[in-house]
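Sequence only, no structure available. Ideas?
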Amino acid sequence: MIKNYSDEQLILKLKNLVQKEKALTVYILHHLCEVERRKLELSRGHSSLYKFCLHELGYSEAEALLRIRAMRLLKSIPEAEQKIQSGVLSLTNAAEIQNQIRRENDRRKKTALPQLTAEDKIEVLRLTENSSTRDCQRSLAIVFPEIQIEPREQTRVTRDNKTLIQFTANQELMEKLEKIKGLLAHKNFAGSYEQLFLELANLALKKLDPSQRPAACSQHKKLRNLKPELLQQQPHRHENKNQNQNQNQLNLNDPMDSRNSNAGLPTAPKEEAFRRNSS
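Reply:
I predicted one. C-alpha cells follow.
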C-alpha cells in the first residue's frame, strides 16, 4: 500500500507518524513513572526499574537508560514534557540533562551547597533547546564545569587484539574530524571513528613513508637527482656550439678556405660566378 503513495503523500504520512511517535514517547515515560511509583518492578522480581525495562519491556541497555533518565527529568521539570513532544528537546538530550543535574546535585550535597532550584533547571532546558547532542553536551559542560571529567590519554588492550584509545579533543580538532568524515563518507558509511582514523593513517603513510610511495615517484626522484649533472653538462654543450660558430666565422674570413673561393671579388664578378655555378 505504501508503494502506491505519491511523493507528497508519503512525506505527509511520515511526518504524521513522527509526531505520533513523539507523543507516544511521552506517554511511555508517564507509564514508566507510574510503574516506579507503584514499585511494580520489585513486585515482578526485578531489582531495579532498569532491569524491568530490559527483561519485561525488551529494551536494549541504551534504550532503557535513555527512557528512565528522561522520565525522571519529566518528574523533576514538568515543562520538559511539552519540549519533548514538540521535538524541541530530544530524548537523548533530555536523558543527558537529567544525568548532569543529578551529578551536580550530588556534588553540591557533598560540599554542603544548596541544590539546584526549579528555576535553575528550567534555565538549563532553555539553553539546550534545539541543540544537537554535541552542542547540548558543550552547553552542559559550561553550566556545570565542576563535574566534567577530564580523562587522561591512555591506551588499553581489549579483546580480539583491539586497543581502546582515549584522549580529549578540542573544538577545532572535532570540527576538522567531522569535515573529513563527510569527505570520506563514501568509504565510511557508518561514520566510525575507527574507520576514519584508519583512512587518515593510510593517507599519511602514503605521503610520508618512502617505502609506500609509487614507483613513478621513485623514478621522478631519480630524475630529480640527475638534474645537477645535466645542468653541469649544459655549459659544455653551449661552449662547443659557440666554438663551432666562431670557427665558421674564421673560415669565412679566410681567403684560402675553399668554402670562401669568391671572397675578395667585386660584387659584379661575384654575381656572374654565382650564375655560372648555378647553371
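The two ends are 101 Å apart (CA to CA).
Hope that gets you unstuck.
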